């Protein structure tokens, strides 16, 4: 295997925090460089501060550390992006273009640039949304993801850069809190339940959304990145599915562990974002091209989340 040195941008984010130890196990602790704009990481790692909107700073780390792959996990998510659209667009796009340029300039072996089901909008089929659907996103975050998908194809076609991508559903994890997403309710609800609190959900009870447990999202990411390049037929971004559920179904799953847990529903501006997204995703192309198969359903995820959060909240009791 080629010696790989991995740069993680946004290592202190929800996905970065959980992906870091997997990358360290796969490539060796000393071969993974974690970066973020904030030094608040919980994982032990080789760390450098990096604002990836600064191309010179990014290129300096790539050269100095002999980087061969980049995982670009920094972005402003859907809900937060709507509070300052041009800031979100500039941050998401400048970081992306800096990463693609670094990939081209330094002949990196591979680049991972996540997309999202937020790339779909009102004119995509709601059920089993196909890989090739109309992409008319309702949010700046979604617009930036569609642009990123097309820039990735451009850099692959014109410069031969091996850029790979997944349209993540809402990602649910215990390792860190997400920030600024429309699916964040599905993480916060577990934290409140385990602490014995009631929960107010900012989406309506029947809002069905595609979701995935972090373990599945991480395995999909590494399986995609380790697949032979000849197997990769999608250079925009692969549809990825784990499960789909509503807040009411998630609540019922939690109540099997905490029968007295109560949820009230107070939809806010994020309801319109959620309503513009698919309810379920067809990921048959990912299954065909690189053998994707999810492992976690709602009951299994709930069992895992509650067990891990019990350790987090009750270890200090
Ligand atoms: C968000 N968690 O809510 C992200 C994700 C599909 C949702 O892109 O913005």
TrEMBL record:
Keywords: Oxidoreductase. GO terms for biological process: L-threonine catabolic process. PANTHER family: L-THREONINE 3-DEHYDROGENASE, L-THREONINE 3-DEHYDROGENASE, MITOCHONDRIAL. It holds the Pfam family Epimerase. Belongs to the NAD(P)-dependent epimerase/dehydratase family. It is an enzyme of class 1 (oxidoreductase). The keyword Oxidoreductase applies. Residues 6-239 form the NAD-dependent epimerase/dehydratase domain. Its EC number is 1.1.1.103. It comes from Runella slithyformis (strain ATCC 29530 / DSM 19594 / LMG 11500 / NCIMB 11436 / LSU 4). It comes from the Bacteria. InterPro entries: Epimerase_deHydtase, NAD(P)-bd_dom_sf, NAD(P)_epim/dehydratase. This is L-threonine 3-dehydrogenase. The keyword Oxidoreductase applies.
């Amino acid at each position: 295997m080629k010696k790989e040195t991995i740069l993680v941008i946004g290592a202190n984010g929800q996905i970065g925090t959980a992906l870091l130890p997997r990358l360290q196990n796969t490539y060796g602790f000393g071969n993974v460089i974690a970066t973020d704009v904030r030094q608040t990481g919980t994982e032990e790692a080789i760390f450098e501060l990096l604002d990836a909107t600064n191309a010179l700073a990014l290129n300096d780390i790539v050269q100095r550390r002999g980087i061969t792959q980049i995982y670009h996990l920094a972005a402003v998510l859907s809900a937060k992006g709507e509070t300052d659209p041009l800031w979100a667009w500039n941050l998401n796009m400048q970081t992306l273009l800096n990463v693609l340029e670094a990939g081209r300039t330094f002949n990196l072996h591979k680049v991972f640039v996540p997309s999202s089901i937020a790339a779909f909008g009102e004119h995509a089929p709601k059920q089993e949304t196909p890989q090739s659907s109309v992409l008319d996103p309702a949010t700046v975050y979604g617009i930036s993801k569609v642009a990123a998908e097309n820039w990735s194809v451009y850099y692959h076609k014109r410069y031969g850069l091996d850029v790979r991508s997944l349209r993540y559903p809402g990602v649910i994890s215990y390792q860190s809190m997400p920030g600024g997403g429309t699916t964040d309710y599905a993480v916060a609800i577990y934290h409140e339940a385990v602490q014995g609190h009631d929960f107010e959900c900012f989406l309506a009870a029947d809002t069905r959304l595609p979701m995935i447990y972090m373990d599945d999202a991480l395995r999909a990411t590494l399986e995609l990145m380790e697949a032979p390049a000849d197997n990769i037929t999608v250079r925009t971004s692969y549809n990825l599915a784990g499960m789909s559920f509503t807040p009411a179904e998630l609540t019922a799953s939690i109540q099997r562990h905490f029968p007295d847990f109560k949820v009230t529903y107070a939809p806010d501006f994020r309801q319109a974002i959620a309503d513009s997204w698919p309810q379920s995703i067809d990921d048959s192309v990912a299954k065909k091209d690189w053998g994707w198969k999810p492992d976690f359903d709602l009951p299994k995820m709930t069992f895992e989340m509650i067990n891990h959060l019990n350790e987090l909240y009750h270890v200090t009791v």
